[in-house]
Write a structure and sequence with these properties.
35% strand, globular, 2 domains, Phage tail protein beta-alpha-beta fold, 374 residues, alpha+beta, 8 helices, 22% helix
């Protein structure tokens, strides 16, 4: 049973107000009381509802159980006190992508799964600095002296990885010192080193478009749970949201995709091919006949070409993390044109209402779209 004191500590953690000592207390409690899982989930759900946020799986223990049920090897990392310690690390499973014993993840790698969802893009630096962005698309540049975020320079005395969290309705662009560029889609996260050494490795969840600068001596590796993508230099899309299959789609060049370090399950893609790994572990490789719609978000737009309003609203629902419903008369409206992705679903629906004869209202956490003459 989750005690009142521990419940209070957990709420402080979600609000980002827990001190390092309070995080240690909660961590110790969770280690010894795994049965508190259901109450922890319920507490988090109520916390999200009170703040008008969608229930998010990052501190979700269901994610842990799913990984355990798949037989993935686990490790419980020791948390670095110099950075923001992850309270749920003791019960969160970081998948090991190697047959060898994996080293303990850094604090930033742990935060990839445990950092509470924010309304704005957030960067966590190796020394624990938390930088929040007010932009729709956060701009990040890795420099020899540190990291530049939205035009401001930040230095970090600690060596290690950075974590970037992009919430619903936002995006981010990251340029590494080697010239490689990553564009992060809505509801995505990435862990990357401040500067690449002999290897160029990043870990992520969600969706990202990579433009990797070629370096024959340093392959670029992207890890998405069990999926491992390795390239020398190319353009490709990686997608793996919590409720969807993992996908790697190659725009140009060549990529090698594998499950962990398993060479037996390794696949080399050619341009316009897509690798898919479903929840049952089945791998499929198919052609991408048309890139239309798959990469538009990276330019901050949604392009419609005779697209039904229902499909547009379904896309907006996923992009902004809010439920949208419409009746059959609205669903069948055909749309052609380009929409700029705005910071909120309310703004986007207002723009659609200015183009089409529709109106929207929000009730009990759901947006309803109807004809404007009703």
């Amino acid at each position: 049973m989750l005690m009142d004191h521990e419940k209070s500590l957990f709420l402080k953690y979600l609000d980002g107000k827990a001190s390092p000592d309070e995080k240690r207390q909660l961590l110790a409690y969770l280690k010894d009381n795994a049965s508190a899982k259901e109450e922890l989930q319920s507490t988090y759900r109520h916390w999200a509802d009170e703040r008008g946020r969608s229930f998010d799986p990052y501190p979700s223990l269901d994610r842990v159980l799913q990984k355990v049920s798949r037989g993935r090897r686990v490790s419980f990392p020791a948390l670095a006190m110099a950075a923001a310690a992850a309270v749920l690390a003791a019960i969160l499973i970081i998948p090991a992508l190697s047959k060898r014993q994996a080293p303990a993840p850094t604090a930033a790698e742990t935060e990839l799964y445990t950092w509470p969802e924010s309304d704005k893009p957030v960067a966590l630096l190796p020394d624990g600095q938390v930088i929040q962005s007010g932009a729709i698309e956060m701009q990040v540049t890795c420099t020899p002296g540190g990291i530049r975020i939205d035009g401001s320079d930040y230095t970090s005395s600690a060596k290690g990885s950075c974590m970037l969290s992009v919430p619903y309705g936002h995006r981010a662009r990251i340029q590494f010192a080697d010239g490689s560029v990553v564009r992060m889609n809505s509801h995505s996260r990435i862990v990357f080193p401040g500067s690449f050494g002999r290897e160029r490795n990043v870990r992520m969840t969600g969706e990202a478009l990579f433009d990797v600068s070629r370096d024959e001596g340093r392959p670029f590796t992207v890890e998405l749970d069990d999926v491992r993508v390795q390239v020398l230099g190319t353009r490709f899309l990686v997608s793996g949201y919590e409720d969807d299959a993992h996908r790697v789609a190659l725009v140009s060049g060549s990529v090698n995709v594998s499950l962990g370090d398993s060479r037996a399950q390794s696949v080399t893609l050619v341009p316009n091919q897509m690798y898919t790994l479903d929840d049952n572990g089945k791998v499929n490789v198919e052609d991408v006949p048309d890139w239309r719609g798959m990469l538009d978000w990276a330019d901050g737009v949604y392009r419609a070409d005779g697209t039904s309003m229902k499909d547009i609203l379904n896309y907006m629902s996923r992009y902004y993390g809010e439920k949208v419903e419409c009746d059959s008369r609205v669903a069948g409206i055909a749309c052609t044109g380009t929409l700029n992705l705005r910071s909120t679903l309310s703004d986007m629906l207002s723009e659609l209402s200015g183009i089409f004869s529709i109106k929207s209202r929000r009730q009990d956490g759901v947006w309803y779209v109807t004809l404007s003459n009703e």
